[in-house]
Design brief:
Helix content: 25-40%
Number of helices: 16
Largest sheet: 6 strands, mixed
Structural class: alpha/beta
Strand content: 15-25%
Shape: globular
Distance between the termini: 64 Å
CATH architecture of the domain at 83-108 and 212-394: 3-Layer(aba) Sandwich
CATH topology of the domain at 83-108 and 212-394: Rossmann fold
Order of helices and strands: EEEHHEHEHEHEHEHEHHEHEHHEHHEHH
Strand order of the largest sheet: 4-5-13-10-11-12
Length: 419
């Protein structure tokens, strides 16, 4: 297609496309994929974007995705997730317009299908047979599903406190799952040891592979199409280390370079206050993110990312936040739970706890007068709640066992329901 080169974001060293490259061999920096944009323009991509009416999957944007032959595409029809107007914010005319982009509508119920579709397609193109990732759940489920579709063998390394519901789904696909003692950084670092020792392609959805981030940026392209080119003023993301935000920034930057937009929305990283290395650096006006050294658990397990061994991932995310004129903020556990149940009981949406964090952030920014009534705000709901049922069970009471006695139920109705 139109893949041109890989370039180190740190030292600028360039690499020819073709092999499954990781970080820069010269300085260890993060690699970014670049395209022959003149050829992309000549292909009619701009006209296609300006006239998009139906997006079948993320490969609608294949001109700006890193395959060299589209016969290698592995897809489960991911992408084209809906934008849904908030009922809570619509009721009050003094509040801004707030929409949700519901990534739980992807095939395995999270945005992780986007990066894994791209990365697994690239693995298939390069003729590799084994893949591995570290995950709390969603990335492992996506890896398992797309590996099954591609006929690849797969391994998943998880922290020992990962949700059991997610692990059961991963195993159902035939993927081998191994728990280790420690947090997600420990799982990530051990998966690197395994991939190096056994020559397995590592598809950790951090910045390890530049190919996964390319899948993330398709959200930006869809937002452009779904809003007919008139972008939101603010976009809020739940953030661990940040490839989703960075990928979307790259997507908007490409649209800017192609003269399809005239500015990039303000991107907001929302982290749990129990694990917030990027927000801490932003709040303290520090340019380099440091490892989070506190050992606390958040209900938003998917962003519980201390960055042990790879704080530079957080640093590139911090830079993109600032480049967009955005913010990095924290929310507490009560704010996350409040957002979860507002989404469920008032909006009719069912997110995982992590997927609710962006909305918790939007509510906080509104309360602090960052968001004005003339603003257009988009919140990414990154994953659905069905793979985190075990967490919801802990927050609910056991249903009451009753007799099939209508008279007795009348008393329950009067005393416990209608009253």
């Amino acid at each position: 297609m139109y893949l041109k080169k890989l370039k180190c974001l740190n030292c600028g060293k360039e690499y020819a496309p073709g092999s499954f490259s990781y970080k820069c061999s010269q300085c260890g920096g993060i690699l970014e994929i670049q395209y022959d944009y003149n050829s992309v323009i000549k292909s009619g991509f701009k006209e296609k974007m300006l006239n998009c009416r139906h997006i079948p999957n993320i490969w609608y944007f294949k001109e700006l995705l890193p395959l060299e032959n589209e016969k290698n595409i592995i897809t489960l029809e991911e992408g084209n997730t809906p934008i849904i107007r908030s009922k809570i914010f619509v009721r009050d005319k003094d509040k801004p317009r707030l929409d949700f982009k519901d990534e739980s509508r992807n095939p395995t119920c999270s945005f992780k299908d986007r990066p894994l579709s791209v990365a697994i397609s690239k693995v298939k193109e390069d003729g590799k047979n084994w893949v591995i990732t570290s995950t709390h759940g969603n990335a492992g489920i996506a890896l398992a599903a797309y590996s099954a579709r591609a006929g690849l063998n797969s391994l998943v390394i998880v922290p020992n406190k990962s949700p059991e519901d997610s692990l059961a789904v991963i195993q159902a696909y035939g993927t081998k799952v191994f728990k280790i003692k420690g947090d997600i950084s420990d799982a990530y670092n051990f998966s690197l040891e395994i991939s190096d020792e056994f020559n397995i392609v590592n598809l950790a959805t951090t910045f390890l592979s530049p190919y996964t981030t390319e899948g993330d940026k398709t959200i930006a392209f869809e937002i452009f199409c779904q809003y007919n080119g008139v972008l939101p003023d603010w976009i809020l993301f739940p953030i661990g280390d940040g490839p989703l935000l960075v990928g979307c920034y790259k997507g908007f930057k490409e649209l800017l370079d192609l003269d399809l937009i005239n500015k990039i929305p303000r991107l907001v990283a929302v982290q749990s206050e129990k694990c917030a290395p990027i927000a801490r650096a932003y709040i303290n006006n520090i340019d380099e993110v440091e490892v989070w050294d506190k050992d606390e658990e958040t209900i938003a397990m998917g962003i519980n990312e201390p960055l042990k061994g790879y704080p530079e991932d957080g640093t590139i995310t911090l830079k993109r936040i600032k480049d967009s004129g955005g913010l990095a903020i924290t929310v507490n556990e009560n704010e996350i739970k409040g957002a979860m149940f507002d989404l469920i009981r008032k909006e009719g949406l069912f997110p995982e706890p992590t997927g609710s964090v962006g909305f918790a952030g939007a509510k906080k920014l509104y309360a602090q007068n960052y968001l004005k009534k003339e603003d257009k705000v988009l919140v990414l709901l990154t994953g659905g709640g069905m793979t985190d049922i075990c967490i919801y069970k802990k927050l609910q009471t056991e249903p009451k066992l009753i007799d099939k006695d209508l008279g007795a139920f009348k008393n329950i109705w009067q005393n416990e329901i209608s009253g």
